[in-house]
Design goal:
binds NADP nicotinamide-adenine-dinucleotide phosphate, 7 strands, 7-stranded parallel β-sheet, about 15% strand, alpha/beta, about 40% helix, Rossmann fold, globular, 8 helices
């Protein structure tokens, strides 16, 4: 049985990943503000991951008979879609906390708590193409996704130096038909010149379903970690 910690399990990609791992008989510990999954092998930690004090209280523990441990840093937010000069300071801080501080804190705690366990350990950061592409109105989102790419790259380098039984990859999941995409389409053209491209993705049925993307991640999991690139795109699988 795998033990899988996933952030953002109340909807979207995180929920689809959790449901598919549960179908495979694995144990899933989910973290988000809302809980929408009921299953005997599912445990939920209700938490606002943008709140540093609450984040600090999250604990990882060794589990009997764990064949491997996986941490999927999936929860993310677009934040406010506005040009620099019109943003709310608190919303900037909350989005940065969720998108980059929480994955760093959780990866650090995961390593600290489980480093002496014999079972292999995997960290999967959900990144985005936005981490390598400058999109107006998305300065907070793009910057925090660029930051998670660099965090993942350095973490990977450190693990190789130690010859550890832990591996990390950061994966851009492609465009998915979730609440995040509907938020993108609700942005104002004044603050987001690329709006039409995202409206067209929906109109032309270009968005993948969360369950398709989750299935692709799970079925290619070993290949993703065999590939030496620390930062990858699901499009390569
Ligand atoms: N959708 C896309 O096209 C797309 C493209 C590229 C990358 N991504 C990335 O894929 C990941 C999943 O995105 P998605 O599209 O599935 O998003 P989503 O549908 O908006 O779901 C986001 C999840 O994160 C949780 N979350 C949000 N704020 C939180 C907070 N403060 N504390 C704890 N949990 C919080 C939400 O749960 P609660 O609201 O219950 O807390 C929800 O479960 C994100 O990292 C995103 O950047 C998505």
């Amino acid at each position: 049985m795998k033990v899988i910690y996933i952030t953002g399990t109340s909807r979207g990609l995180g929920k689809a990943l959790a449901e598919q791992y549960l179908q495979n008989g694995d144990l899933v510990v989910g973290m988000s503000r809302n809980s929408t999954i009921k299953h005997p092998n599912y445990q939920h930690i209700p938490v606002d991951l943008s709140d540093i004090e609450k984040l600090e209280k999250i604990v990882f523990r060794p589990t009997d008979n764990a064949e491997s441990y996986i941490l999927i840093n999936n929860a993310g937010t677009l934040g406010e879609v506005k040009h620099v000069g019109s943003m709310d300071s608190l919303m900037i801080a909350k989005a940065v906390n969720l998108n980059i501080t929480a994955p760093m804190v959780l990866a650090n705690k995961f390593m600290d708590a489980l480093c002496n366990e014999k079972a292999p350990k995997y960290v999967l950061n959900i990144g985005s193409g936005a981490g390598t592409s400058a999109i107006d109105g998305w300065s907070v989102y793009c910057s925090s996704k660029a930051a998670i790419n660099m965090f993942g790259e350095i973490f990977d380098k450190e693990l190789m130096l130690k010859d550890s039984n832990c591996k990390v990859r950061t994966l851009a999941p492609g465009i998915i038909d979730t609440e995040m995409q509907s938020e993108i389409r609700q942005a104002s053209r004044e603050h987001f010149s690329d709006l039409k491209r995202f409206e067209d993705y929906k109109k032309n049925n270009d968005l993948n379903s969360a369950s398709e993307v989750a299935a692709k991640i799970i079925s290619n999991f070993n290949l993703i970690y065999k590939n030496k690139d620390a930062i990858q795109s699901i499009r390569n699988y």
